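for the writeup, i need someone to sanity check this before i put it in the appendix. the sequnce is what the collaborator sent (i think, or maybe the updated version? ugh). structure was predicted straight from it, no edits. if anything looks off just tell me and ill rerun, i have time this weekend
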Amino acid sequence: MKNIIIFGAPGSGKGTYSEAIVEKYGMGHISTGDVLRSEIKNGTEVGRMAKDIIDKGQLIPDELMIRILAKTYDSLPEGQGVIFDGFPRTIAQAEALKQMLQERGHDMGVMVELIVDEQTLMERLLRRAQIEGRADDNAETIAKRFAVYHSQTEPLAAWFEKEGIRHTFTWEGSKDQMLANIFAFLDTLK
């Protein structure tokens, strides 16, 4: 299986769909959010720096994320493909990821873009905050995350388009239908 970059706005379901893809295809999964939350929970130096940055609604510096990502990627079994969930978020990160993978004789594979309207995203994130008690999911921080997404991350879609690996999937009100569409596409990659 090829590597997959799962891409979308905060709350678009990147983690949910990544888990389903991992379960079906047996791929590796690198969730930058999970990796960072683990560092924060463990109180590491990187975790403390990350918490301060995340609490402000900002993105982690590229060089720090690539270092963490490369270490995690290298720890996974080779040849099964990896889902990158939550990374890259900027063109500079995409270029760094492309270079990191090329150094290992691998490529980025495909980008799966999840398109969901912003009102639905806000509702999901606020609901998640209530269920999980995540401090980074309050209305003010969510608004900042959307602004960062629109200014820094959304332009990355055009970069993936130029690379010839962008594949979009639009939310039509059903998680099952969205997943069926994604699976149908991924089945063509085997």
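The chain has a mean pLDDT of 89. The longest strand covers residues 110-115.
thx in advance!!
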